[in-house]
Every structure is written in C-alpha cells, then in structure tokens.
Write a structure and sequence with these properties.
Elements lengths: L18 E2 L2 E2 L4 E6 L6 E7 L2 H18 L4 H17 L1 H12 L3 H21 L6 E3 L5 E9 L2 E5 L7 H13 L2 E5 L5 H13 L7 E3 L4 H10 L3 E7 L2 H11 L5 E5 L4 E5 L5 H12 L10 E7 H16 L19 H16 L3 E4 L14 E4 L6 H4 L6 E7 L2 H9 L6 E5 L3 H10 L4 E4 L18 E2 L12 E9 L3
Parallel strand pairs: 7-8, 7-10, 8-9, 10-11, 12-13, 12-17, 13-16, 15-16, 17-18
Antiparallel strand pairs: 1-2, 3-4, 5-6, 6-20, 11-19, 14-15
Helix pairs in contact: 1-7, 2-4, 2-5, 2-6, 3-4, 3-6, 4-5, 7-8, 9-10
C-alpha cells in the first residue's frame, strides 16, 4: 500500500532510524510505524534493546567530557542553529507528526512552534546559569557555582512527539549535559527528525542520542546505568512510579511529569462564551489526549443548562477526520486500546445515569475515530471521575456551592492542572489557592507555555519543566569554601 502523506522536502524524515553517536543504527529486527487515521504503514524502524542503549550511554559519557567544557555562549549558538533548522523544516515536521500521531495538521504545526519555543528559551537560559557569593568570615570566601549534572536519560510520550522532547533536551543541552532519549514506540519518526536536525546544526555526535524499540529493556538500562545521573520521564503515573523506584538504586536526580485528572470549574458568574471556549481549548486539544485536558467539568447550577447547550452546539460542529486530507478539528485516537477505554468510559457513564447530549459513539471517519462527546449527569461513582479518559469526552458534573466545587475538584490523587471560570476576583484568588494542583488556568483553558513552570503535585509528578526553573533540573550546586590569608 502506498503511503498517502504529502511529499516531504526532507524525504529522509520518513526513513529515519535511531541515532547514536551521530550514526543511524540498526537493531536485530524492525517494526512498522502506522498512521492511526488510516492504519497504513509509514516506515519500518529498527527495534533496539539493552545493548544499543548501553552503547548510547557510553557515547554520552565520552561526549560529556567536551560538551560540559564548551562555553555557554557556544552551546547557546548551537541551540539557536538547531532552532533555525526546526523552523526551516516546520511544514515537514508538522506533516510527519500528523501522519504518525494523528492530530490535525494545524495542531501539529502549532506543536512544532511550541517545540521550537523551548529550544529558543533554553538557548537564552544557557547564558544565565548564575552562581552566588555568600558572606563568609574574615579568612573565608564562600562561592556557589552550578555545573551540569551529567548524562541524562529521557523518556517521552506519543501525544506530543516534538514538544515533550525539546522541553527536556533543550535545557539539558543548554546546561552542558548529554542525553539519551527514548521516544514512544508509536511516534519515533518526529524524534529521529529532531535529532538529525540537531546533528546538522553542529551539536556534536554523542551529545543527543535517540533509541527506541524494547521499552522495558531500554528503560531498565536508563534507570540503572551508573553513568546516567539524571532521569526525566513524561507518561502515566503507574509507569512513573516504577521508573522512580528503579532510579533509586543509583540515587539519580529524577523529574516526573505524570498523569492528571484535571477539574474545570464554571461558576454562575462566569462569562459563558469565555468558559465554553476555554473548555474546548482544554478538553478537545489533541482529541482530548493530553495530560492537562479537563477530565471533569464542574458547572454551577445557575449556569449549568446554558453552558451545556452552548458547549454541545460547538462540539457537534467539529470537523472530524484525517488531518492529512484537509482542515480538521479532531483526529483519531492513538490505538485500539485508547479507543476501547474511551468507549468503556462512555458506556459506564450511561449505565450509571449519565445522558448523552451529543456524540457518544464511534465516528464514521475510521476505526479509531470517536465522536466528540458531551454528557451530563456525571457523578463521582463513574470511572471517568477517577480515571483519565484521554479522549474527546466532556462529562459535566453539577455543583451548588464553591466549597462543594473545591471538594469535588480535589477528590483525586492527581494534582497536575485545574481550570476555573469566574468574574469574581475574590473567588478567583480563593479557588486558585484552594485547588490542589501545580498549575491553574483562571479564565483560561491553556496553561502550557515555555515561559512558565510546568509540573504537578501529589501523584502527578516531581520537578518542573519550562521557564527559568527548567534548567535547574539539569544542574548541581557546588559550594567552594575558600580560605584567604589577610
């Protein structure tokens, strides 16, 4: 079957392979990368394992000796050169991402821009790794410097195949670390393309390696190898806990961006149009397949019916389809298992008294497409109240008081993001401070930006990515206590 993806200027992006020490490498076998919208094979990719991961880390260790000594201005220049190539090949990267991940092309192109923003931000932060001088005594001077932590292992998910990579790799490289990255087995082509562009930008071989294939074998090496001193992961809470435990054997520095169960609160005094648009931006981005999307929509009784009617009207008008065949608002779910989970959540909600306002079934666009759905009568006993749906389903819960809304919102072990809509400034502060999450979107459905720290509390993770704090995850402090003769 011919691959129905528009011709790429960089045809090698479709034939890319894992990259170790500046060279594309082969494994003992290959596996197919498929388009979730059509099921067609896009490319055959080498399936790597423990041996190749050891080789990648060894090359990281060799490259680190030189890379850490490079002046910050030189690392910044190389990151800017990488940025320029990413922007130059924006269209190809967007098409590639839509083909292997399924998101609408407009969203894919937006993600390329978002990914580029992290490279730009941390290229600038490379020159701002400051130390400090602490007042000592007459015969001592105390100086604190910050140095790269060393070799970093990184694992990224399929839902943002470009941005989740640059949000980790760019600060690591800016700090002077080297990285071995394992992207999702479902979406490695975007990762290979980004690594290839980094190499073409002049980032030395061995500084940024990419391996994929046998996930347990690769993950085991990244979390146990003594040369890996920093480990960063974005993915499910269950897997994050397992990897954190594995990292404990060598006491690695760990940062985890894990699952969410984001509440979105709409109060009676909210601007209705703003609340609906914010809900759509949060809930239906990437077909609902984001860790920060609104999983539970809590609406106060006085505005509930009007909000549901307005939201359903917007959702029912979405264009659903293959992002490579024209303008779309929603794409496919990533796998059969993902589709089955969404379908199961809807069936469970109906069985427990929920009502479908719009959607609720498989979409005619293809096997992995689900109709954008709004359902009412949601309650805490439903599966979707406790589990991330990770799909285009907006369940609406009704509440009466602010205290009830906060109690419902916080009744979860997750604590990544939350959203609230109100025109009462006092309530806005009370709710923002009362929500048990690492990020709050107040009258805003988008919390992600390279300029602000991204991360959660409770079982949603450790550490922060993005912002000036993001580079700190890849730096160690060293205290120099200097004796001085008077």
């Amino acid at each position: 079957m011919a691959v129905t993806i528009p011709p790429l200027e960089r045809s090698d992006f479709l034939t890319g392979q894992p990259l170790v020490d500046g060279t594309e490498i082969c494994g003992d076998s290959t596996y197919a990368i498929t388009n979730p919208a059509t099921g067609e094979a896009l490319a055959n990719v080498a399936k790597l394992g423990a041996a190749q991961t050891y080789r990648a880390i060894e090359s990281n260790s060799r490259a680190f000796i030189d890379w850490r000594k490079r002046h910050a201005q030189e690392r910044a220049r190389l990151l800017h050169d990488w940025l320029a190539l990413v922007r130059l090949h924006r269209q190809d990267l967007g098409l590639l991402m839509t083909a292997e991940q399924g998101k609408p092309l407009a969203e894919a192109l937006g993600e390329v821009d978002y990914a580029a923003s992290f490279i730009q931000w941390f290229a600038e932060e490379a020159r701002r790794v400051y130390g400090e001088v602490i007042p000592g005594s007459a015969d001592r001077r105390i100086i604190v410097i910050r140095q790269p932590v060393g070799v970093a292992g990184a694992i990224t998910p399929w839902n943002f195949p470009a941005a989740m990579i640059t949000r980790k790799v760019a600060p690591a490289l800016a700090a002077g670390c080297t990285v071995t990255l394992k992207p999702s087995e479902l979406t490695p082509l975007t990762a290979f393309a980004l690594a290839k562009l980094a190499l073409e930008a002049g980032i030395p071989p061995g500084v940024f390696n990419v391996v994929c294939g046998d996930a347990p074998a690769i993950g085991s090496v990244l979390t146990s190898h003594p040369d890996v001193t920093k480990f960063t992961f974005t993915g499910s809470t269950a897997v994050g806990k397992l990897l954190t435990a594995q990292c404990a054997t060598t006491l690695k520095r760990v940062s985890m961006e894990l699952g969410g169960n984001a509440p979105l609160l709409v109060f009676d005094d909210a601007d209705l149009d703003q609340a609906v648009e914010g809900t759509i931006a949060s809930k239906f981005r990437n077909t609902g397949q984001t860790c920060v999307c609104a999983n539970r929509i809590l609406v106060q009784g006085g505005i509930h019916d009007r909000f549901v009617e307005a939201l359903a009207a917007r959702v029912s008008a979405f264009t659903v389809g293959n992002g490579l065949e024209g303008a779309t608002d929603q794409g496919p779910l990533i796998t059969r298992a993902a589709f089955d989970k969404v379908q199961g959540h809807v069936a469970d909600a109906i069985a427990q008294g929920g009502g479908i306002v719009t959607g609720g079934k498989r979409h005619g666009a293809g096997e992995l497409f689900f109709q954008p759905t709004v359902l009412t009568g949601a309650n805490p006993a439903m599966r979707l109240a406790d589990e991330e749906t990770f799909g285009p389903v907006a369940p609406v819960f009704r509440f009466d008081t602010e205290a009830e809304a906060l109690a419902l919102a916080n009744a979860t072990r997750s604590g990544l993001a939350a959203y609230a809509f109100t025109r009462d400034i006092d309530r806005a502060w009370r709710v923002a401070e009362g929500l048990e999450t690492g990020m709050v979107g107040m009258n805003n459905g988008i919390v992600s930006t390279e300029t602000a720290p991204f991360g959660g509390i409770k079982e949603s993770g450790l550490g922060r990515e993005g912002s000036r704090h993001g580079i700190d995850e890849f730096l160690e402090m060293k205290t120099i206590n200097l004796g001085v003769r008077s």
